[in-house]
Design a protein that fits this description.
Low-confidence stretches: 1-25, 129-150, 407-411
Number of domains: 2
Oligomer: single chain
Number of strands: 12
Bound molecules: iron/sulfur cluster
Strand order of the largest sheet: 1-2-3-4-7-8-9-10-11-12
Mean pLDDT: 85
Helix content: 25-40%
Radius of gyration: 21 Å
């Protein structure tokens, strides 16, 4: 059911931007695949192994200065630099540290800054436990031996990655929406956030378990091609299995249908946030374009891996989505969907200029209990980095607001 609206125009604009190659910095090497690098260096008369050495330097060794790439001859580096080629990886420009260990970064791209969040030990939800709900024995699966000897004692971590600067989707409970959509990030800018953060924490990927969640600024499925190109870079060049990645969508149905056709893809989370269309429309204008039933139908077409489940994300807004009848209606909706799934409950994280209230801990537990009684696997997301505007729905490049008190939720 198509309904013309201001919101619909924003979606189309975002899609057009995604397909606009002029936004990709022409001479930035970071963001190009091994085969593209082989081809670029081939034009300099170099053998294919030189391109692969450059890919190794950019993505595995995470080098970001010509001088450091000593596997390439100095004369070749000089010729590339003289022709205007840059390494071009985004770098951390500013960082904020929460009392709970979470770090939020402003990451500098060629044009502006974008936000990325590092959560040591994750946030207690399904994405943390990716081994338990996806078949990691599938192609690309990696094994981490959870060695904590090299990087500050953490055993697993989650990186929350942005796909756009700002967002067009305009969810009423989200601070990012206040920015509007500024632009789509390139594949290199999306993957570059991950590499910059891995580098900051000196992560050795085969020693540590790192999960990626594409749940930062923006709607990844409104920047679909660049998002999936970033996934392939992260898988093939950086070395993170897609089973350790989760992408969240507000429900862009045509993109969900494309996603269903991907031969190798991240896990999927649906940002549901309401038990029915009428409440969801008030919170998420996207629902007027693609209502819940249409979204669930599109998700059903995904061929799920063995033991894989999708996640329904559900933000609890006091008096709006956290009532007992909401829990019962949500349970019925989830059961009716017949999807292999679980639910993540998120106590709303406050932000300036948004008039909702956070639920009490008791009401969060009562809501969870209703779902559990209905036989639905349900997690409560531990708020991470709330005091530094790093928690879910709080990413707005905040640098000057007073801290929000941290919230301790039951484990
Ligand atoms: S919740 Fe996600 S999709 Fe909705 S406005 Fe915020 S960033 Fe965009």
């Amino acid at each position: 059911m198509e309904q013309p609206s201001q919101y619909g125009n924003a979606v189309e604009t975002a899609s057009e931007m995604a397909g606009n190659p002029s936004r990709e910095p022409d001479l930035g090497l970071f963001g190009k695949s091994s085969s593209e690098l082989v081809s670029i260096l081939g034009e300099y008369g170099e053998k294919p192994y030189r391109g692969r050495q450059l890919a190794e330097a950019l993505y595995r060794q995470r080098l970001n200065h010509w001088d450091a790439i000593t596997t390439l001859p100095a004369t070749l580096r000089q010729r590339l630099a003289a022709d205007g080629w840059t390494l071009g990886r985004p770098e951390i420009a500013e960082s904020f540290r929460s009392i709970d260990g979470t770090e939020r970064y402003l990451i500098q791209t060629a044009e502006d800054t974008v936000e990325t969040v590092w959560m040591p030990e994750g946030d207690g939800t399904a994405e943390d436990a990716s081994d338990t709900n996806a078949d990691t024995s599938a192609e690309g699966g990696e094994k981490a031996d959870e060695d904590d000897s090299d990087t500050g004692g953490w055993k697993r971590a989650t990186i929350c990655v942005s796909s756009q600067v700002g967002c067009a989707v305009n969810c009423q409970f989200c601070l990012t929406a206040k920015l509007g959509l500024q632009r789509n990030l390139t594949a290199g800018e999306i993957a570059g956030q991950v590499v910059a953060v891995l580098n900051r924490h000196k992560v050795v990927l085969n020693k540590k378990r790192v999960n990626l969640v594409f749940m930062g600024m923006g709607e990844p499925f409104l920047n679909y091609d660049n998002f999936m190109a970033a996934v392939r870079l992260l898988r093939d060049e950086v070395g993170i299995a897609t089973q350790r990645m989760t992408v969240s969508t507000s429900g862009i149905v045509p993109a969900v249908r494309r996603f269903a056709q991907e031969p190798d893809r991240p896990r999927l989370a649906i940002s549901l946030n309401a038990p029915n269309d009428s409440i969801r429309e008030t919170l998420m204008p996207i629902n007027r374009k693609w209502p819940i039933a249409e979204l669930v139908d599109a998700v059903r077409a995904i061929p799920f891996r063995q033991r894989e489940k999708i996640t329904f994300e559900y933000v609890l807004l006091d008096g709006v989505t956290n009532r007992r009848e909401d829990a019962r209606e949500l349970a019925a909706l989830v059961r009716r969907s017949q999807l292999p799934c679980m639910v993540n409950l998120i106590a709303w994280n406050p932000g300036p200029g948004i008039a909702y209230s956070s639920p009490t801990q008791d009401s969060v537990l009562a809501f969870q209990q209703e779902l559990v009684v209905a036989g639905i696997q349900t997690y409560i997301r531990r708020p991470r980095g709330r005091d530094i505007y790093a928690a879910c729905g709080q990413l707005k490049r905040t640098t000057d607001q007073p801290p929000i008190p941290a919230l301790v939720m039951p484990q």
